[in-house]
Specification:
The complex is a heterodimer of chains A (364) and B (224). In chain A, 23% of the residues lie in helices and 37% in strands. Chain A is globular and about 75 Å long. The relative contact order of chain A is 0.12. In chain A, strand 4 and strand 5 form a beta hairpin. Chain A has 364 residues and is of the alpha+beta class. In chain B, helix 2 crosses helix 5 and helix 9 packs antiparallel against helix 10. Chain B has 224 residues and is mostly helical. The mean pLDDT of chain B is 88. Chain B starts with a helix and ends in an 11-residue tail after the last helix. The chains are: A alpha+beta (364), B mainly alpha (224). At the A-B interface, strand 7 and helix 4 of A face helix 6 and helix 7 of B.
């Protein structure tokens, strides 16, 4: 059997919603799972239950064949025995210990020399070697999160749990660390679950996305797939951005960046930091469809000729899938769809402004 | 000078403080963390000595642990002398009477420690007891120290319970505060002055030392 994380977590709050989240995913291959959902959707409840900090009212949690929790059989493995690494929003770095003391905190079982070696290894890896003698109060927010990550990784956890790891940071630090966090997590080789309500964070970090709405996990799948084909309206509302295109930088200048997605060329406002791979995100309602009748002048930088692949009627709106070198989703009114007779095979031009494209750098 | 009485008072206060660190910290830790529904009853009992006249506590201790009660007989059989009018009796009464002065600051200090530090420690594989020693206690230290000092000072100055349970036996149960009472009764105002001044000075020095120590340099993580 493949190593997997499976859980069914049921927790009732006396004056509030009930969380009843269940999901299962393999631990190998795509190690980074983002638990994504609006605030109050139960993300933290799930994470705390996985860590063993809270005991669900009912359900089961199994990790790689081990039972961590079974409500019916009254099994509960305490956090100390689960081997999880935990990273809180604000790090929770012990304020009374030096950085070195923090990183080595969970290594009590190792001998002095082994401990020092492991601490040094992590210090080099997370680039905090120059901070080892400092107290947490003397660190910046970003440095504190690095220390917290080093501390969590030091005892070689089997699973990393990150609760909004970047949300307490100021914007520039957040963006810098976001870009780095994925490669750090990937290199650690430890499967991770990252809780976030931030789309950019979900896109930048996750291999897999688990969408949580009102206490229930609605959809689990590869990040792009969940964004481009949400399972239902609720998921669509939560993920918001339907078009998430794998793109590669091919040029730029003048504050703009040129990217290639599939065989289509896109122009976007350059957010900076796009070196190679990135996601180009466009909301379906920002995509305008027009008949392909030899172009007229428009201010939209992106004009992609293609043909309608399929459509899905959603009340007054129609979701139109267009094949134009890359697959795009456009959300148009039913009236427009009728007027342009948007049926499969119809030639159209999909256009959107450069400002409608959001770029999330994703170093691979 | 009542040096015997001073020595006795210091010994009593020191032992009471020590006992309340040992008993009070686990109790405070339970009060800070437990979600037991009837916890409020325990809290009320712990705080009783704050509102009860010392004579009430002393009276019940005399009755409950006197030579005529089963508990008192058990104590006598075990220790070899009756509970009332002994140092052991004085010590037991002091511990009970000072309980809230230790447990309340301890509880406040322990519940002031951010849960996430404790949880981070648990997730790092460190047991609950070790986490208490390595994280909770160091972070709650100023509050715990304040509780210990309050207990010490309060025991040093207690009078009613001491008189009820301990009586006034020089060298055994005659504390500073009782000695002052004695002097005043006997109209020895000069002696009363000296002893009172001594108690005032000792109390002030103890408090000054503690407030002097509670500086950011010693507790940098509490610097605001």
């Amino acid at each position: 059997m493949e190593r997997a994380l499976s859980f069914e977590i049921i927790r009732r709050y006396r004056r509030g919603p009930t969380v009843a989240a269940s999901a299962s995913w393999p631990l190998s291959k795509q190690p980074l799972t983002v638990l994504f959902g609006p605030s109050g959707s139960g993300k933290t409840t799930v994470l705390r239950a996985l860590a063993g900090l809270d005991r669900p009212d009912e359900g089961t949690i199994a990790f790689a064949g081990e039972t961590w929790f079974d409500g019916a059989r009254k099994v509960f493995v305490p956090p100390q025995a689960r081997g999880v690494g935990l990273l809180f929003q604000e790090g929770a770095v012990f304020p009374h210990l030096s950085v070195e003391g923090n990183v080595g905190y969970g290594l009590g079982r190792l001998g002095r020399n082994e401990r020092a070696a492991r601490v040094n290894e992590l210090a080099g890896w997370l680039r905090i070697a120059h901070l080892m003698r400092r107290r947490p109060a003397e660190l910046s927010g970003g440095e504190r999160q690095r220390v917290a990550l080093a501390r969590a990784l030091a005892p070689r956890p089997r699973l990393l749990l990150l609760d909004e790891p970047l949300s307490a940071l100021d914007a520039p630090t957040r963006e810098a660390l976001r870009a780095e966090l994925r490669s750090l997590l990937e290199r650690s080789g430890v499967p991770a679950v990252v809780v976030t309500h931030d789309r950019a964070e979900a896109l930048a970090l996750g291999d897999r996305l688990a969408v949580l709405v009102n206490g229930t996990i609605k959809q689990v799948g590869p990040v792009q797939e969940v964004f481009s084909s949400p399972a239902d309206v609720e998921v669509a509302l939560v993920v918001g951005t339907e078009n998430v295109l794998s793109a590669r930088r091919v040029g730029g200048g003048d504050g703009l960046v040129k990217l290639r997605a599939g065989t289509a060329d896109l122009v976007a406002v350059d957010p900076g930091g796009v070196e190679d791979e990135a996601f180009a995100c466009v909301r379906a309602e920002d995509v305008v469809l027009e008949p392909d009748d030899g172009g007229h002048l428009t201010s939209a930088q992106n004009r992609l000729p293609g043909s309608v692949a399929s459509r899905r009627d959603e009340g007054p709106l129609v979701r139109v899938f267009v094949e134009c070198g890359v697959r795009l989703v456009a959300l148009v009114t039913r009236q427009s769809a009728e007027r342009l007779s948007l049926l499969p095979g119809r030639r159209v031009v999909a256009s959107f402004k450069a400002q409608a494209v959001r770029i999330v750098p994703r170093p691979s | 000078m009542d040096l015997d009485a001073l020595a006795l008072s210091l010994r009593l206060a020191g032992l009471t403080t020590l006992a309340l660190l040992v008993l009070g910290l686990p109790l405070a830790s339970w009060l800070a963390e437990s979600r037991f529904r009837l916890k409020f009853l325990v809290e009320a009992v712990v705080s009783l000595p704050l509102v009860l006249p010392p004579t009430v506590l002393g009276f019940y201790l005399l009755v409950g642990l006197g030579p005529k009660s089963p508990l008192g007989r058990a104590f006598e059989a075990l220790v070899g002398h009756p509970f009332p009018f002994s140092f052991a009796g004085l010590f037991g009464a002091s511990v009970l009477y000072s309980l809230p002065f230790a447990v309340q600051p301890f509880t406040a200090a322990l519940s002031g420690v951010d849960r996430r530090f404790v949880e981070a420690s648990h997730a790092l594989g460190v047991s609950r007891l070790e986490t208490f020693a390595r994280v909770t206690l160091p972070l709650a230290w100023p509050g715990v120290l304040a509780g210990a000092v309050l207990t010490f000072a309060h025991t040093l100055g207690e009078f009613g319970v001491v008189l009820m349970v301990g009586g006034n036996i020089p060298g055994r149960t005659r504390t500073l505060s009782v000695a002052i009472f004695d002097h005043v009764e006997a109209l020895e105002y000069a002696a009363a002055h000296r002893t009172a001044l001594l108690l005032l000075a000792v109390s002030f020095v103890v408090l000054a030392v503690v407030y002097g120590l509670k500086r950011p340099a010693l507790f940098p993580w509490n610097a605001r």
